[in-house]
Amino acid sequence: MGNVDFSDLRKWVDELDGLLVSGTVKYRRMYADYNTESKVEGFDLEKYKIDGSKEWDEWADKCVSILDKLPRKHYLFHFVQPRSDGMMRTGIPVALGGRLVTFEYQLYALEDIILGLEENEGLALRKEIADKEYQADVLYKVTRIDHSRKVRINNIVLHASNYDSENDNFMAYVIANPGRPIPRTELEQACGTLTKRLDHIIRDLGFTGNLAKVFFPVKTKNEVMFVNPITKQYAFKNELPALNFIEIGRASKVE
């Protein structure tokens, strides 16, 4: 469902659920009233069909106005063009058969849509909970802003490199490829020839002392590994040292 707000999704499901109930009542009343009114002298079948269709169209328009807000338009298509199940209907007046069957298909389509939205709502809720748990578990996180080339740790600026420099290209690549060993050959293929040793680039980016231990557990002349973000579980398991953000702020570098 993309970035649909969870409260909006709940509201749409509730509104469609109400329309499903009201539509079911309209459907049942339409053929129940026919059985009574058709026996009255002077009954106008065509007027009855037109009035019933008009009332149904007004109901369907309310459904469409909500379905049109959904980011995935297949829900709207599913309702406007409901799929036939190929089954014969019994108990429906022959004079109204075609119209009522179409209305019934729309009711079933709406029910399927609501079930699908409720499933997505459940997924959205579980994702929201998982995201909150993830954020709560993140201890340290490095971010890099492309246009300013600033490297931050938990929103504290650590370093800002010159455009297209070795340091900047190196940082951009490792931050896009965390959690795995990266050979120097791969780095040079992505960043161009590196004139400095890998551990010197890491040092020049401000990752020294505990910072280097935390984020660069591997930094040899031929290979590096950048771990990001650092979760509480990962830090505990690997017995990582605590970071002093006052010192990080003081050591901030801008080329």
Essential attributes:
255 residues; alpha+beta; Arc Repressor Mutant, subunit A; 4-stranded mixed β-sheet; 10 helices; 9 strands
Descriptive overview:
- With about 260 residues, the chain is of the alpha+beta class.
- It has two domains: about 5-135; about 140-255, Orthogonal Bundle (Arc Repressor Mutant, subunit A).
- Helix content is about 60%, strand content about 10%.
- It contains ten helices and nine strands.
- A four-stranded mixed sheet has the order 2-3-4-9.
- It is rod-shaped and about 100 Å long.
Give the overall average pLDDT.
83
Q: Classify the beta-strand content into a percent band.
A: 5-15%
SSE series: HHHHEEEEHEHHHEEEHHE
**Helix percent band:** 55-70%
Q: Could you give a short account of the major beta sheet?
A: 4 strands, mixed
**What global shape is seen?**
rod-shaped
Number of helices: 10
Largest sheet: spatial strand order: 2-3-4-9
Question: What is the count of structural domains?
Answer: 2
Given as residue ranges, the uncertain stretches (5+ residues, pLDDT < 50) are none
Distance between the termini: 43 Å
